[in-house]
Specification:
Elements: H1 2-11, H2 13-21, H3 27-46, H4 56-82, H5 90-119, H6 127-153, H7 156-160, H8 162-177
Helix pairs in contact: 1-3, 3-4, 4-5, 4-6, 4-8, 5-6
Length: about 180
């Protein structure tokens, strides 16, 4: 039940961004959010595939880490492109993307541990499971960082983020007035 409510809230984020701020996320982000929710909430939550399919957890961690890495890449790229306070090399950008993805994986594992400790919900199957999850998060972040380097160099990320870039520019201009 809680997973379904969280899924509904997360899936409405792109719609709210478009309505409230007049920006559209790249279509691939919408797809990745929907796919990650489908795996976690639909297949994992409703159909409980985490236990009958041994590597299902690895797939969900990989998909989610790629999504987080892509969101981190977009945020860093937008700040680098539109804010004078950040100037970062594309390879340093990729490193930061991997670091953010790894940190997000750690936070996720702490949340699983806390849910088990406080609520009695057992999400963790032991140290080996946790380490494998963190390794897969690192691999997903690294894969997206490598793709991200090419997206930046080829100018494709700029095309994908034009709407969001306008929002960043107007936000920065608004902050400078204060």
């Amino acid at each position: 039940m809680l997973e379904c409510i969280a899924g509904i809230l997360i899936s409405t984020a792109p719609i709210l961004l478009k309505r409230s701020f007049k920006i559209g996320l790249p279509g691939i982000i919408d797809f990745m959010i929907a796919f990650a929710l489908f795996l976690h909430v639909g297949m994992g939550g409703l159909f409980d595939l985490y236990y009958p399919i041994p590597d299902f957890d690895i797939v969900t961690h990989f998909v989610s880490s790629v999504l987080i890495a892509f969101l981190a890449l977009i945020a860093i790229y937008l700040l680098d492109t539109h804010w004078d306070g950040l100037s970062i090399d594309v390879y340093a950008m990729a490193f930061v993307v991997v670091a953010i993805t790894m940190a997000s994986g750690v936070v996720w594992e702490f949340a699983e541990w806390a849910a088990g400790t406080l609520l009695g919900i057992n999400f963790q199957l032991g140290l080996e499971d946790t380490m494998m999850d963190l390794l897969v998060d690192t691999i997903g972040g690294t894969a997206m960082a490598m793709v991200g380097i090419n997206l930046v160099k080829e100018g494709k990320l700029q095309e994908m983020t034009e709407d969001m870039g306008r929002l960043v520019v107007s936000y920065i201009a608004h902050k400078k007035k204060w």
